[in-house]
Design a protein that fits this description.
alpha+beta, eight-stranded antiparallel beta sheet, two-stranded antiparallel sheet
């Protein structure tokens, strides 16, 4: 495994392009069982005096059961050469087959949770808060109508970034 830990203050990225344009990969579980999915919705910042990421997972996603069952997950980012692999990981379910093997990723364990050898940058995150997005809380109802026509509202997770690793 070829990762080195970075001090959080040395991480430099644009969260708007990193998530929305380049995408991230959320993975949870351990060597006995894990799953991952591509995400483009999320955020990075500070809340409760902690460095955090926020991610959003729909209830039907297989990865959700791994995130829910574990205290930690990873949010990993990849070089542009892996964009097609991330597309596959965002559209196929791990319930239906080994999508990780299909894209040629190699699982590795960091701090007791799963990421992939191909990742450039890995955030190891500890869950602090989870809640389902509630339709009645939308101030602009059109956002709910546009994004949730099947009423499958995401679970929002806020997680503390405990460690950041860079591939070397």
């Amino acid at each position: 495994m070829a990762f080195k830990e970075l001090p959080l203050g040395e991480v430099s990225l644009n969260p708007f392009t990193k998530l929305d344009k380049e995408w991230g990969l959320v993975a949870a579980g351990n060597a006995d069982g894990s799953n991952a999915m591509t995400v483009s919705w999320g955020g990075m910042g500070t809340i409760w005096n902690k460095p955090v990421v926020t991610i959003y997972i729909r209830p039907q996603r297989y990865t959700k059961q791994f995130v829910d069952a574990n205290d930690h997950f990873t949010l990993s980012f990849f070089d542009s050469q892996y964009k097609q692999a991330l597309s596959v990981l965002g559209t196929k379910s791990g319930r239906d087959g080994d999508k990780i093997a299909e894209v040629g990723f190699s699982p590795v364990q960091l701090d007791g949770t799963t990421t992939y050898e191909q990742a450039d940058l890995v955030f190891v995150c500890r869950k602090l808060y989870a809640d389902t997005i509630k339709p009645e809380c939308f101030v602009d109802a059109s956002v709910d109508e546009q994004n949730y026509p099947q009423r499958d509202h995401h679970t929002l997770y806020i997680a503390e970034v405990e460690h950041v690793y860079q591939h070397i």
